[in-house]
Amino acid sequence: MGYNVAVVGATGNVGTEILNTLSERGFPADRVAAVASTASIGKEVSYGEDRRLKVEALDHFDFTGWDIGLFSPGAKVSAIHAPRAAAAGCVVIDNTSQFRMDEDVPLIVPEVNADAIAGYTQRNIIANPNCSTIQMVVALKPLHDVARIRRIVVATYQSVSGSGNAAMDELFRQTRAIFVNDPIEKEKFPKQIAFNVIPHIDVFMDDGATKEEWKMRVETQKILDPAIEVIATCVRVPVFVGHGEAIHVEFEQPLSDDAAREILRDAPGVAVVDHRADEGYVTPVECTGEDPVYVGRIRNDPTVENGLAMWVCADNLRKGAALNAVQIAERLIETHMKKAA
Ligand SMILES: NC(=O)c1ccc[n+]([C@@H]2O[C@H](COP(=O)([O-])OP(=O)(O)OC[C@H]3O[C@@H](n4cnc5c(N)ncnc54)[C@H](OP(=O)(O)O)[C@@H]3O)[C@@H](O)[C@H]2O)c1
């Protein structure tokens, strides 16, 4: 007996990667539905190497009989349709920002707080965190367990795929326009993204932070520990896939760079690549299509007591979105929705 799984947002960056990940990991699905907007009716998407799924429209999709809904259709669409699916008995794992900070919705990174999944019964919804938060907490949880984190200062280098398909097209078009001397056209980004970096992701908040920076703080506190202080500067860079983060951490207890490296070598979901030499670290281009959160450039920070600095890199569409969501689904069926063999 397998599960009936609806992938909502199946034509998008995240949805496409969810379908790949379900297939690659052999998720025990009896039926998989590809669901998107009415504009995609009749299109086909790939599910694994040799299967094609016809896209169905979310507006008319009846979730009765579907066990799990893996949602990434944007926050406004999830706000309407995730509760509708949940009411029909489908457990929604939502990639958007819509429900993340709701107290009765668990916000899950399986390597960090898998046990909190149990709270899904309150609304039948589980939230997947922001891509930048996920890779940061996977890398920091094992260190927090040993030396207790007091404060995190992080600067992100986030790829354009984090803003969806249209944003990737904009980077491509602008890059081409520069080479052929055409005018630069901006739609998805507030400034030119080709050959530039933009310290502005999501809207500005009253305190001057952007919402992306706020998300990194409040989501880390919800997932890892409410006592941790976080200050983030989130920057969009002209990279197609893969987010990098320069993370500076202050601990309550002393923790050397060697000790941190040893702890992280055994940590779930983490790969340490940290050779103090040319090419001895991972960049976004190399982590594309890969599952681990890569940690390197680990070094002591002599400017604060008990400080460490590091470079953390991951594929934002995989661990930052699709893989994390599928891991939640795997944990859910293992611990809460087991079906007889
Ligand atoms: N990209 C990341 O790294 C990342 C990470 C974590 C979370 N997320 C979140 O995941 C969501 C999707 O991101 P994405 O990068 O996959 O965006 P995307 O490439 O723009 O894809 C959007 C998907 O949503 C569907 N959609 C849009 N409006 C819809 C509607 N009214 N009804 C049904 N489906 C609708 C689209 O279908 P059509 O093709 O039919 O329009 C498409 O399948 C966003 O909320 C984003 O914040 C993204």
Report on the architecture of this protein:
It is a single chain. By secondary structure, this protein is of the alpha/beta class. It has helices at 13-24, 75-87, 110-113, 131-147, 165-180, 211-223, 257-265, 284-287, 318-335, and strands spanning 3-8, 29-36, 44-47, 51-57, 68-71, 91-94, 125-127, 149-158, 229-236, 243-251, 270-272, 293-301, 307-314. Strands 3-4-2-1-5-6-7 form a 7-stranded mixed β-sheet, with helices on both faces. Strands 9-8-10-13-12-11 form a 6-stranded mixed β-sheet. A hairpin with a 3-residue loop joins β3 and β4 (51-57). α4 crosses α9. The radius of gyration is 20 Å and the shape is globular. The site of NADP nicotinamide-adenine-dinucleotide phosphate has 29 residues, from α1, α2, α5 and α9.
In short:
The chain is an alpha/beta fold. The protein contains 9 helices and 13 strands. Strand 5 (68-71), helix 2 and strand 6 (91-94) form a beta-alpha-beta unit.
Strand content: 15-25%
- Individual helix count: 9
Question: How would you sum up the major sheet?
Answer: 7 strands, mixed
Whole-number radius of gyration? Answer: 20 Å
Question: On the 0-100 scale, what is the average pLDDT?
Answer: 97
Order of helices and strands: EHEEEEHEHEHEHHEEHEHEEH
Broad structural category: alpha/beta
Query: Unreliable runs, pLDDT <50, ≥5 residues?
Result: none
Indicate the percent of residues in helices.
25-40%
What would you call the shape? Answer: globular
Distinct small-molecule ligands in the complex: NADP nicotinamide-adenine-dinucleotide phosphate
Give the distance, in angstroms, between the N- and C-terminal Cα atoms: 6 Å
Strand order of the largest sheet: 3-4-2-1-5-6-7
